[in-house]
Amino acid sequence: MSSTSTPRRALAGLALSLLLAALGTSSATIALPTLGQSFAAPFPVLQWVVLAYLATSTALVVGAGRIGDLLGRRRLLLGALSLFTLASILCALAPSLPVLIAGRAFQGIGAAAMLALTVALASSAVPKEQTGRAVGLMGTMSALGTAAGPSVGGFLIAHLGWPSLFWLNVPLALIALGLVTAYGRADAPSKRGGSAAAVLPGTLLLALALAGGALAITLRGPFASAERLGSLAVATIALLLFFARDARAAVPLLPWSLLRTDGRSRTLLVALLVAAIVMTSLAVGPFYLARGLGLSPDLAGLILSCGPAMTALMGVPAGRLTERWGSKSASRIGLIGMAAASLLMALVVPGMGVLTYGGALMLLTASYSLANTANTAGLMQTAPTDQRGLLSGLLTLARNLGLIAGASAMAALFALGSGAADSADAAPAQAAQGLTLAFLVAAGLAGVGLVSVRVSAR
User: Is Membrane found in the keyword set (predicted)?
Assistant: First the structure.
């Protein structure tokens, strides 16, 4: 076997792992109406099929990265893939909705490690000068999973029933397990001391805080509802306890000195910002296309799918451009493109038609792919080898928080700008005003990202 085939097959296993984690988020939403009919459940209960996965995968991603550094990242990823496989079988065989929700929570636990460790392992599987391409491939697979989830899920549900959505995961996860087992490079546990048990209390406290915060943002209903306020209270208390404990811990979950070095905290900020900006197109786009341009749902969906498709197509080229230009320059160019696309959306698109919207959307998502790939590659290239799992987990967390916050904030800005009582009933002129306000704020966020990159480059 050639020396180049082993890393490529290892990367294939890692890419498939990331694809599965992305499919877990995007494919389940399309199944909610069918699950409601099968289990005779209302939407407030059905949404937990999505929230259980989202909350656990977001809450545990930092702890999974840190524990991977301490135990060995390949070892933990193999365990995560095994758990994801078993959880998928549980979901497919679920006789009731509570069992299905429990299976989704276990899937989320496995996905947390898959999200945290794949980029770290990919950057270790190739020479340093090829980090951009490896990171770009991971970005392509993540975007592909996000883009393909609804269509693949809809096809499977229509022809084979909702359990097939989860049965699909089993052979794919087994292939990933085989590739990572056979070709993945075994990494030694961190030599900095400490054990997984030592960071477990901090992991659980941070997980509780993040899960509470994520639920508070994603739950529907009035802002002052008991569920939302309770989630916020739990998140706040858990976060305070986490900071108090981690500051005294012999082996902290988050070594703050690590984040203060090489501009890593600003890198995480940029990851959050670009995710929030690209989420604007998904949070605001459906309302503008339907109410502002009067498009049918199927045509609006086709236009919106151009965004994830462009992100997937740009992944590997973005990695090559990052290697050619350097991570800082590529990140700046990507952010400039995102700012330009946001200004086009805000100032030009409202007076034009669907083709202009589609062009601005593709510029936005292509620029996002470049900025995100460069940002990630830069972080991984400077990361200490035995702390790449932690930094990869923090990067994934920042990105997820940006997506969650972006969806909530940009939808609220659209509603504020439109002035309509309900965004779904906005008149065309109102929808244009909402689009303008949301993307002007997105352009401002891109400017903040540019300042952060410029400061960290000094």
Answer: yes
Tokens read off for 79: 């365990």
Series of mean pLDDT values for 10-residue runs along the chain (458 residues): 67 91 82 86 80 84 86 91 97 94 94 90 81 84 79 84 93 94 75 67 84 74 77 90 84 75 83 90 82 80 81 87 90 95 88 85 93 88 79 85 81 84 77 90 94 73
Per the domain annotation, does 232 fall within a domain? no
Tell me the CA distances in angstroms from 203 to 66, 209, 239, 363, 383, one per residue in order: 9, 10, 11, 38, 21
Q: Which residue has the tokens 């390949």?
A: 74
SS3 of residue 372 by DSSP: helix
CA 305 to CA 295: how far, in whole Å? 14
Of 193, 209, 230, the domain-final residue? 193
CATH of the domain at 178: 1.20.1250.20
What is the count of structural domains for the chain?
2
Contact 352, 162 (CB under 8 A): no
Residue 147's Cβ-count burial label (10 Å; 0-12, 13-18, 19+) is buried
Nearest 5°: the CA angle 141, 144, 147 is 155
Q: How far apart are CA 176 and CA 152, in angstroms?
A: 19
Q: Which of 369, 338, 395 is nearest to 132 (CA)?
A: 369
